[in-house]
Amino acid sequence: MPDWFTESFRAEFDRQAAAIGRFNLAVFGKTGTGKSTLINAVFGAEVAKTGIGEPVTQGSHLYVDRRGTLGIFDTKGLEIGRDDATLVRELREVVKGLRSKPLSEQIHCAWYCVRGMDRRFEEAEATFIRALAALDLPVIVVLTQVPRRDDQYHPDAVALARHIESLRLPILGGRPFMTYAMRDQFSGQPPYGLSELVHATFQVVPEAVQAALVAAQRVDLDAKARAAQAFIGVTVTASAAAAATPIPFSDAALLVPLQLAMMARIAQLYGLGVDKAGLAAVASTAVATTAGRASFTSLLKLIPGAGTIAGGVISASIASTFTFAMGQAWLAVCQKSAGGALPSLGGVVDTKALHDLFMSEFKRRIPGMRTA
Ligand SMILES: Nc1nc2c(ncn2[C@@H]2O[C@H](COP(=O)(O)OP(=O)(O)O)[C@@H](O)[C@H]2O)c(=O)[nH]1
Ligand SMILES: [Mg+2]
After folding, report:
1. What ligand 1 atom has the least distance to the C-alpha of 189?
2. Are 147 and 177 a contacting pair, CB within 8 Å?
3. Which of 186, 214, 218, 335 is most exposed, with the fewest beta carbons within 10 Å of its own?
C-alpha cells in the first residue's frame, strides 16, 4: 500500500492538473519550415517526437498530441498550397465539434510557420491564414530560422516580413514574429525570439488557459515564478484563515491539505512528473514513509513561538510564516529540478542534498531563526 504522504501528494497532483487544464496549440506551415524544432524549443523535447499524435476524428489528417498541460494539433500528409481545401474543411469540422466541449479541449491559438529565408509567401498561405481566422482561431505568424547578427535580422527575412505585413492579414500584431529555435552548430547562431512568441501567445489565449500555457512552456521562467508566487500568496492567506477559525481540530493538520495543494501546483507549473515531484517532496520535507501527517507538520516546530503544537492551536501569523516558508523552499527545489540542476549522485537524486537545499531555503524564511 502506498504511504499516506505519497498517496495524498498524487491525489493533489491530479487535482491541480485538472484545475490547470490544458493549452492547445495548432501548428501549421510547410514541411521543413521548422515546426517540430520550434515546438521542442518552446515546450520541451518530450512533446514533439512527432508522429505520435492520434487522429482527431476518424480519417482525419489532423492529429493531436496531448501531454499534461499541452495539446499540439498537427497535420500529417496534407500540404498547404496543395490540400488547403481538405485541410480547412477538416479543421472547420473539428473546431465546430469542439465548441460544445470544455475550454481545455478547444484549440486556443494557431501558429503559422514560414521559413524566414524563403523568399516567397504564397497566396494559398494567405488564404489559409484567413480561413483559420474565420474559424475564430487567433493566428500568430512565425518566421523560423531567421539569422540575426548584432540585433539585425537577415535582410531577406526582413523583406519577407514586410511583404507579409503588407498583406494586412488577420494575424496578431499584423506582422510575423522572428525566431530562431535551435543553435546552429556551424554559424553559432543562438536561439532567440521564443519568449517573445510565448508572450504574444499569452495575449490571445483565454485567461482560464494561461496557467496551462505557463506550465507547458519552458522559455519564460519568470512567468512560472510569478504564477508560483501568486499561488503561494493565496495559500498563505488560506492558512492564516484556517488557523484563525476556531475548529475543534488540530490547526497544524488543517494546513496539510493546503500545503500539499501548493506543492502540487508548483510542481505542475514547473512541469515535473508526478513520480519525480513525489520523490522530491518526500526528500525535501523528510516525511518518513510511515509517519505521514505528523511528520509533515513537524517542520512547524522549527518556527520560534510555535512551541509544542501537535494537536494544538497555532496563530494565524505562525500558520502564514510556516506556509510561506514551505512554499518558497519547495519553489527553490522545483526551479532547480526543472533546470536539471537537482543534486544527484551517479544519476540518482541525492535525497540528502535535496533535503539540505529545502531546509536552508525554509529556514531563511523564518524570522528569528539563525541559519547555519
Ligand atoms: N539550427 C537550426 N536548425 C533548424 C531550426 N529549425 C529547424 N531546423 C532544421 O530544419 C529542419 C526541418 O525542421 P523540422 O522542425 O523538422 O521541420 P517541420 O517539418 O516543419 O517540423 C531540421 O533539420 C531542423 O534541424 C533552427 O531554429 N535552428
Ligand atoms: Mg515536423
Report:
1. 1
2. no
3. 186
Domain at 21-210, CATH class:
alpha beta
Q: Report the alpha-carbon distance of residue 367 to residue 362 in Å, rounded.
A: 11
CA 181 to ligand 1: nearest atom: 27
Residue reference for cell 491530479? 14
Q: Which three cell numbers stand for residue 108?
A: 486556443
Start and end residues for every CATH 3.40.50.300 domain found in the chain? 21-210
Give, using CA atoms, the residue closest to atom 1 of ligand 1: 184
User: What pLDDT, on the 0 to 100 scale, is given for residue 250?
Assistant: 64
- Ligand 1 atom with the smallest distance to the CA of 145 is 27
Cβ(51) to ligand 1 under 6 A? no
Residues of the chain with pLDDT under 70: 1-2, 45-52, 246-252, 288-295, 305-313, 369-372
Per-residue pLDDT of 58-85, as tens digits, reads 777 888 888 889 999 988 877 888 888 8
Report residue 55 as a C-alpha cell.
Answer: 487522429
Q: How far is the CA of 297 from the centre of ligand 1 (A)?
A: 50
